[in-house]
Write a structure and sequence with these properties.
The chain is mainly beta. It has three helices and 33 strands.
């Protein structure tokens, strides 16, 4: 998978129909109108989301990685990105120890890549992980603003600085290797901050985003159009995160880069030349933000704060974050996006940011599209499970139990 994200040596789980017949079912009737507008190829999906075939996971996993395999009882606490290598080996980002763990296809621990630090082959943080042909890995360190290259056998290879001048007008938020020798960087820019008089309430403080295409030395070759980033809330006492802010995204395909604000179900893309723009739009996927969902997220946050703050300080503690005037009328549509080994696009349904918690609650619903925009299926996940990689009829997920212990599991994908 190239979120980045391959004949599998593992047995494949076979559903009740052949794969080809399952995936051609949505194509039997027209589901998209394709038009050209100002040089942008716009594909408008007209299918009803409720008509999608539903995929599920097999009842149980066929491989589980607990971290015990490393001999370190604290491994995978918490867990970051999980990726497949070409032969079926698995790499797992261990966020707690700031390293990358390598397991073979049978789940046997092989080695760790990197450690905490600022020097070559070290990390302060680990974000996006990409796998290139030949199993070269790249890992983005947002704190050091650099992309490091690794190989599971040879270890550290080199790093590329992406910090430029350090300006807040183009802050690198994530970065991915693309098409072997290129790098795509998601960059955020802060807009001027309003002055808010005392008692004037809360206002949105938006960010802007764009992508840069860079060569192997980190030099900018091309730049994407600008699109909305996330936003925070600014009030007379400072600024605060907002749980229902949109989440900008980018995902690498073989010869496409998908990106967007996440506000609506809209995926823009650039071709291999970082031009030839297009969009996939699905208006029917837009949902209203319900008062019930807002109240539930607030209640979860208050429960977290109740363990840390005296009861006297809880009243009104979240008024700015959940102020009605700052909430969007439509809930953001998209959380994460990635492209699998068959060039299908996987889109996660947005989940609100859980303030005060260590990790983001994952979306339990994913929509799968062909690259031309034809809907394929919808995947529903069990609670407390985060989808990380898809390859053929197999997926890799991160599971969290009632004690907040995380494990990595491989499941078969059931396509009825």
């Amino acid at each position: 998978m190239r979120p980045t994200r391959r004949t599998s040596p593992f047995p494949l789980l076979v559903g009740t129909c052949l794969l080809a017949s399952c995936e051609t079912r949505p194509a039997e009737t027209p589901i998209a109108d394709v038009t050209d507008s100002a040089g942008v190829r716009v594909t408008r999906i007209t299918a009803r989301p409720a008509d999608l075939v539903e995929w599920t996971l097999a009842p149980g996993p066929d491989r589980v990685l607990t971290g015990v395999e490393t001999g370190d009882s604290s491994a995978l606490s918490p867990t970051g990105a999980v990726r497949w290598l070409a032969r079926g080996d698995i790499v797992v980002v261990d966020l707690g120890a700031t390293r990358i763990l390598v397991f073979d296809s049978a789940g046997t621990y092989r080695r760790a890549l990197g450690r905490r630090g600022d020097g070559p082959g070290e990390f302060r943080s680990i974000g996006a992980v990409s796998v290139l042909p030949g199993d070269t890995l790249t890992a983005f360190d947002g704190a050091l603003r650099r992309l490091s290259y690794w190989h599971p056998d040879a270890g550290f290879i080199r790093s590329v600085s992406l910090g430029d001048s350090g300006s807040l007008d183009a802050w690198p938020a994530e970065a991915w290797a693309w098409r072997d020798s290129l790098v795509v960087v998601l960059q955020l820019a802060i807009t001027p901050r309003d002055s808010v008089p005392p008692g004037a309430g809360v206002r949105r403080w938006p960010m802007r985003a764009h992508l840069t295409l860079r060569d192997g030395a980190g030099r900018v070759i091309a730049t994407s159009p600008t699109f909305p980033g996330m936003y925070t809330g600014v009030y007379d006492g400072g600024d605060t995160r907002l749980p229902f802010s949109n989440q900008p995204f980018a995902a690498m395909g073989r010869d496409r880069v998908y990106f967007g604000s996440g506000q609506a179900f809209r995926l823009s893309y650039l071709a291999a030349d970082f031009a030839s723009p297009g969009e996939l739009r699905w208006p029917a996927q837009q949902e209203a933000l319900s008062a019930t969902e807002v109240a539930a997220v607030r209640a979860e946050t208050e429960a977290v704060l109740a363990t840390r703050l005296p009861a006297a300080r809880l009243g009104g503690a979240l008024d700015e974050e959940f102020a009605p005037e700052i909430l969007p009328s439509a809930r953001p549509a998209i959380g994460r996006v990635f492209v699998d080994d068959e060039e299908r696009v996987w889109i996660e349904r947005f989940e609100a940011t859980r303030l005060g918690t260590r990790t983001q609650k994952p979306g339990d619903q994913w929509t799968v599209l062909q690259r031309d925009g034809r809907p394929v299926a919808r995947l529903r996940l069990p609670p407390a499970m985060r989808l990380e990689a898809v390859r053929g009829n197999e997926v890799l997920v991160v599971r969290r139990d009632s004690l907040d212990v995380e494990t990595v599991a491989r499941y078969g994908l059931v396509r009825p």
